[in-house]
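On clarity, I found the account of how folds are encoded harder to follow than it need be. Since the whole study asks how a given chain folds, the encoding of that fold should be made plain. The format is easy to grasp once an entry is in front of the reader. For illustration, here is how one protein appears when written out as sequence plus structure tokens.
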Amino acid sequence: MASESRCRDGVWDGIDDDGVARLEIDRPDRMNALDGLASARLVEVCGQWRSRNDIRVVILSGRGGAFCAGADVAGMASSAASSGGFDADESRGIIESGSRLVGAVRDLPVPVVAAVDGAAVGIGASLAVAADLVYATARSYFLLAFVNIGLMPDGGATALFTASVGRARANAMALLGEKLFAPEAFDAGLLNGVADDADLLEGLVDGAVRRVLRSSPDALAMTKSALDAHALGGFQAAIGREITGQTALLQSPAFQRALSAFAGER
């Protein structure tokens, strides 16, 4: 039972008496797509948890049958329609928000376990893969469809996915917009385990959490830091390239057409 829990701005967070902290995106009507408030809340909670020595492990998930469908494009389309588009400062602010979110997860000193059920798209895919251990249901998939709307991957995706699945598979996801379903993602090295359904996924995650709780917190923190230094040594440089590229692309005619089409469909 959680000794602390609350829901605010589309994010539920709680910490139980064993030091297991849970972060759950709670916007099921939007497939847990992230708006500015939800992103800011996730960053805020991770920042608060980073300095707490009573937290041993963090579980990251989404409510209602989707992990996270990415940025709330509907909200972006509405905002762009009312303001006439995004200028350079607004564009940079949007991309920096996603980068801060993934960075906040990566900066947690304890192991982060992602429980993915359903779609993990765009910044949602980056958020899932930013975890240290990733488990998913068989129906889940990962999608970097930025190119379809005139954008490029962000949130550290160019580093995270290349480090996890290799250059060829990452190129297919980013350049061709190919979906990577959970069974294939497991074979490619993106996932630590696949479960047939949400109940079995919970069992997989709980098993990993129990093993973490039996280990030395100091040993886990130092091991995580060493692994990151090797596998994700270029993470910050990738973030910088993505921010520069996306800032320009958010103002491009191709993306403006995509937003207009989306607003028209809505």
User: Anything to note?
Assistant: The radius of gyration is 18 Å. The first strand starts at residue 2 and ends at 8.
